[in-house]
From TrEMBL:
This is Aminodeoxychorismate lyase. Belongs to the class-IV pyridoxal-phosphate-dependent aminotransferase family. GO terms for biological process: 4-aminobenzoate biosynthetic process; folic acid biosynthetic process. The keyword Lyase applies. The gene is pabC. InterPro entries: Aminodeoxychorismate_lyase_IV, Aminotrans_IV, Aminotransferase-like, BCAT-like_C, BCAT-like_N, Class-IV_PLP-Dep_Aminotrnsfr. It comes from Spiribacter salilacus. Pathway: Cofactor biosynthesis; tetrahydrofolate biosynthesis; 4-aminobenzoate from chorismate: step 2/2.
Amino acid sequence: MARLSLPACLIDGQPQHQVEVTDRGLAYGDGVFETIAIVDGVPALWQAHLNRLQAGCQQLGFSAPTQQALEQDLAALDLPDVGVLKLIATRGSGGRGYAPPDAPTPRRVVQILPPRPALEAEHSGITVRWCQTRLAAQPALAGIKHLNRLEQVLARQECQADGSAEGLMCDVKGGLVEATAGNLLIDQGKEWIFPTGVDCGVAGVMQSYLGRLADQWGINVVHRAFMPSEMNDATALLICNSLIGVVPVYAIGTQKLASSLNYERIREHLITQRLIAV
């Protein structure tokens, strides 16, 4: 196959931009996805993203794309020096109704996209809001990055309405969980808090990486429930995901937060390790 130019898309290894209308990912969100930074022509944290994709497929009960198939797709694409790799795995096509076919033929989609646009003032700190949309409790789906993102869509509409750069989302009990498009790190210097929700949220690849990094740096990591009432002007909050790395939060609405003691150190590490682009 001839190498494809950006933007490019392969569906089951073939150059296409359309899936069948019977695809269950389109009809029911029956699938999972990964969004990966391409830095110096290489997908960052590739194995961790692949592991989460495969775990999500297993949780939903269909076969995941093999690592060999996905890497063959990447070899056929012209990976840019900097960009975004998106992987989608669905159960494939099926008939009417929610019941999946007895012998599904899963479908894989590999897309190469332009680099993400920078957030305004992302290095000095962004202003976010509390979202009214809550994350529903569903233990069967908690942790995986499934295609049902309607809660995030509604939350992003809230952000668009008042111009907030991001939004903070809570679970049904009111505990802080994550941003609309990222996980959270509460930086207390020698201790980092990763908020945990009640049977909801995505197990972040970047957050997991930062947890391992904290161990190397001798920083204690605590996974616990964190209530919005705990947030004050001494709190330093970072948003993290695989595309932005880490971004400091300057304020939640009109409530200003403290500066992170570790932001610059984390960012420099991610750049040096070629996990985010400059």
